Amino acid sequence: MVSPELSLVAEVDNIVIGHIICSKAEVRTFDSIIPVLNFGPLSVLPEYQRKGVGKALIKSMICKAAELGFGAILFFGRPEYYPQFGFKEASAWQITDSDGYSYPAFMGMELISGYLSYAKGGKYYESDIYDDSLNRNKVKDFDMEFLLR
Predict the structure, then answer these.
(1) Which of 12, 20, 80, 101 has most Cβ atoms within 10 angstroms of its Cβ?
(2) What is the pTM of this model?
(3) d(Cα 36, Cα 109) in Å, to the nearest integer?
(4) Beta strands 106-110 and 88-89: pairing type?
(5) Which of the two residues, 133 and 26, has the higher pLDDT score?
(6) Cβ(16)–Cβ(10) under 8 Å?
(7) Contacts of residue 78, Cβ cutoff 8 Å, sequence gap at least 6
(8) Residue 42: helix, strand or coil by DSSP?
(9) Which pLDDT belongs to residue 4?
């Protein structure tokens, strides 16, 4: 499920130049489900990249997520970029992806100190909105409309 209150845009002269979207996700352990926030994609028009737009969107999202009471953020992204915001490898909390793997691109941040200590040994599951298999036939049908014209 998308979190509309955390779908943020950056504008210049009433033109959207950047966007970040968040969705609800969870870490499942043997005995509990810990709600977390996922973010992505983050997008910035090419002519506005490397000008701080993406950084401003990320910082705003983190602040707003904390204000809204979210306990942690987990996501997949570039491990050489996101640590500057305070993200670290999810393995620091002994959390893996849903398939049981851990790697540098799987990162997280606690917004409430100690929040992910309850997730130790858990697996991360994104929202179903990221599951392409759920809508694959709908997409094929939609694409066929253009081929039949």
Answers:
(1) 20
(2) 0.83
(3) 10
(4) antiparallel
(5) 26
(6) yes
(7) 105
(8) strand
(9) 78
